[in-house]
Amino acid sequence: MSDKNALIQPDRGQSATAIHLVDKDGLDAFRKGLNGAQRAALDAQRFVADGYDHAIIPDGEGWAVVSGVADAANLSSWCMARLAEKLPAGTYRRVGGEPGPAMFGWITGQYAFERYLSEPREEGPRVLLTSEVKSIEALSAEAEAVMLVRDLVNTPAEDMGPAQLEAEAESLQKAFRAELRVTRGDMLEHDFPMVHAVGRAASRSHAPRMIELEWGDPKHPRVAVVGKGVCFDSGGLDIKPGSGMLLMKKDMGGAAHALALARLIMHNKLPVRLHLLVPAVENAIAGNAFRPGDILKSRAGISVEIGNTDAEGRLILGDALARAGEGEPELVIDFATLTGAARVAVGPDLPALFARRDGTAQALLDAGLESDDPCWRLPLHEGYREYLKSDIADINNAGTGGFAGACTAALFLDRFVPKDCDWAHLDTFAWRPAAKPGRSKGGAALGLRAAWHMLASRYGQNGA
Questions:
Q1: Distance between CA atoms of 288 and 186, rounded to whole angstroms?
Q2: Where's the Cytosol aminopeptidase domain (predicted)?
Q3: Would the pLDDT of 464 be above 80?
Q4: Would you state the pLDDT for residue 5?
Q5: Nearest-angstrom CA–CA distance, 262 and 373
């Protein structure tokens, strides 16, 4: 795509095509202010101010755009995104108000994943002007973080393995002068036994590793951000059917969210001591693959019976969460494409949110609604812990009975987080099955903006 930093520019009176945003309640009044030719143009295009609908009307010697929105006084992130996708290249200005949060969708609406195309589309940018100069950088940074998630998730596993996730962390380390530590090689020797077990069957080029980045003043509150980095999930010996593997390049979507959130934290200089952790593996099949019925040690000292090798994400997260807890963080947030059960429960658009503390859960829910990135809370129900019982180990990695799959997965993770730690877990899909305005089909950041705005509010960067 074109330079995303140029898609929103300060309004200094440049020549620009006018955009009128009109809701159904204001349509009659808007029509009264038009001349006959303009009203005739609206009628010819059957414009009734439906959301995302737009029409072109004559405007002097040029033309203007009229677009329907749900509420012209309270714009959403997405209400101008369809315009950014459909209008010709050029410069535009909203008439009668500022674009506000719609600047975000204006940028993301021009996203395209073109890495593998022989002939990428050749379209100039649609530039939007605004007098809200202070908002440009903040919303652009959020849009870039969302598009980073899209890029990482859209990239096939051959080009987005553990080494490539490490490279992304290294680029953050260089950009923000952070500290990077990567544990490779014998993961058993470094006490990451579950990361080792899940990743040991992969080829040497996709060897497992634990990626850790630290940034910020050690005196500031310590926040750990953890992301599941299964770069491809075959299911292991409990192999998935072919149809189940088609989207498994996205099983590192949690890692993509964690990297993007870390970038937002550092870019905005949030006053926290950040600890980013990405356990990066490929769940492959080979003679040395871990097996159903195996008993794994864990970094936390909890023994785990393997009921299903396709429930591998929670294993590597268990080691990562235990490692995060060693730093005694004030807050831990993890992202993971963890369960199909969460998708059955809340569908592809809503991350399933689990949290120990009601206040943290509500802050995430509120931040999600305010930033057009909603989440939905599911319970850490104590009664479901019995589904994870093992006769020969401390816990089983796969729940029995087929009930509450997302909840039991979250309860598994809960065992590896220190008991007194504030913790939130987002079971995200990281994928959009069908395009919506500003939200392309493919890799998707779901829960990222909710987490960022919650952190920004909690740690003193209100309005970031």
A1: 14
A2: 308-315
A3: no
A4: 57
A5: 18
The amino acid present at 356, given as its one-letter code, is: R
d(CA 226, CA 169): 13
Query: DSSP states of 118-155 as a string?
Result: SS------EEEEES-HHHHHHHHHHHHHHHHHHHHHHS
Query: Hunting for tokens 């074109």 — which residue is that?
Result: 2
Question: What stretches of 225-312 show up as alpha helix (H) in DSSP?
Answer: 242-245, 253-267
* Closest to 351 (Cα-Cα) out of 366, 338, 370: 338
Residues 273, 274, 275: CA angle, nearest 5 degrees: 125
The two structure tokens encoding residue 209 = 């590793």
By annotation, the residues acting in catalysis are: 240, 314
**Residues 292, 221 contacting (CB under 8 angstroms):** no
DSSP letters, 29-69, are HHHHTS-HHHHHHHHHTT----TT-EEEEEETTEEEEEEE-
Q: Is 171 helix (H, G, I), strand (E, B) or coil?
A: helix
Six-digit token string for 112: 């395209």
CA angle 81, 84, 86 (to 5 degrees): 110
pLDDT in tens, 278-330: 999 999 999 999 999 999 999 999 999 999 999 999 999 999 999 999 999 99
CA gyration radius, the chain: 24
How far apart are alpha carbons 161 and 165 in whole angstroms?
6
Number of C-beta neighbours around residue 63 at 10 A: 12
**By C-alpha distance, which of 203, 205, 188, 195 is closest to 286?**
203
| Percentage of residues of the chain with pLDDT beyond 90 | 95
Q: What is the mean pLDDT of the chain?
A: 96
Which structural domains are found in the chain, ordered by start? 4-128 (3.40.220.10), 142-458 (3.40.630.10)
Residues contacting 179, CB < 8 A, separation 6+? 173, 213, 214, 215
**Structure letter (DSSP) for residue 413:** H
What is the torsional sign of CA 449, 451, 454, 455?
negative
- Report the alpha-carbon angle 221-226-230, nearest 5: 170
**Whether this model's pTM surpasses 0.70:** yes
C-alpha distances in Å from residue 13, one per residue of 58, 226, 432 = 21, 45, 38
HSE on the CB side for 152, CA within 13 Å? 32
Pairing of strands 431-432, 442-443: antiparallel
